[in-house]
Amino acid sequence: MKLIIQIPCLNEEESLPEALAALPREIPGVDKVEWLIINDGSTDRTVEVARAHGVDHVVDLPVNRGLAYAFMAGLKRCLAEGADIIVNTDADNQYNADDIPRLIQPILERRAQMVIGDRPISTIAHFSWIKRKLQWLGTKVVRLASQADIHDAPSGFRAIARTAALEINVFDTYTYTLESIIQAGLSKIPITSVPIRVNGETRPSRLLRSMHNYVWRSMKSITRTFFIYKPLMTFFYLSLPPLAIGAALVIRWMLLFAGGTERAHVPSLVAASCLLVLAALMWIAGLLGEQLLVTRRMIHDLQLRMRDMPSSYDVLKDGSAL
User: Fold this and answer.
1) DSSP tag of 206
2) Please, which residues have CB within 8 angstroms of residue 193's CB and are 6 or more apart in sequence?
3) Are strands 114-118 and 158-161 parallel, antiparallel or unpaired?
4) Exposure of 161 in the CB half-sphere (CA atoms within 13 A)
5) pLDDT by residue (tens digit) across 163-205?
6) Is this structure's pTM higher than 0.70?
7) Is residue 180 a contact partner of residue 216, using CB atoms and an 8 Å limit?
8) Nearest to 283 by CA among 237, 320, 322
9) DSSP letter at 82?
10) Are the CB atoms for 162 and 114 separated by under 8 Å?
11) H helices present in the chain, as ranges
12) How many angstroms separate the CA atoms of 20 and 54, rounded?
């Protein structure tokens, strides 16, 4: 049983030593613990500091690609290194590393394949009132969308079993937190939450540049994921407003016509026709989305097989091809 702790990094030479010093090298129920950092185009000495503090693996991206890309790059490398469990944490040491054994316990007990660390949001001093409320609202939306019992959707402190990591695909370029939960939930990957502790704030969040920007990009991520994984349901719900208004206009015209009105009410008929056609087009789009979903699942199964296959480099490295 191998566990790899991965840390996405962007110019973290100052905070990384403290974060690495807190990481465990031995965990009950795990045979081997390794550390991995994803250097997301840092311009400081992040890689040198990581190697000096005993990091086992480094994914060195030449330019900054964003947190979501770095997260996926780390997952792929962890899988290639044979990880059975992957723990993701932050380089600013905001999460208490002593809770890693608690975080992976549901996976070891085979109760879940993805575990999200549930921060004590109400007691975190540097969280403003509005941030706490948005955190609560965002988690409620993600719970409804994913049908998963999670309590802190934006938390980056999470454990992922190998079988779940093989299936995860993140298309968002902003963050992986929300999309990966919705995708896992809709893919019937067992998810749970465990309470965790946090450390004091070491630096301002680089992801949360402004509350408005974070809310907008999170909404786009959730909406995009719904279109990908639930196209028929999404387009059906979108069709309800034009369908209802169009039907109301038709009923209104029929009542007026039956009452012997002298006017033809052509504008109402035209508006009703356009709205009903729009609703029908949305149904067709939903059906086409379902057909594309079947194709996506077939490609996903092929990708799953390819991810779990050893690379040619691995084969040559262990000498089995010689």
Assistant:
1) S
2) 115, 116, 117, 118, 149, 150, 151, 152
3) antiparallel
4) 18
5) 999 888 888 777 788 888 888 888 889 999 999 998 876 665 6
6) yes
7) no
8) 237
9) T
10) no
11) 16-21, 46-52, 67-80, 100-108, 129-146, 162-165, 177-186, 211-229, 231-258, 266-307, 312-317
12) 8
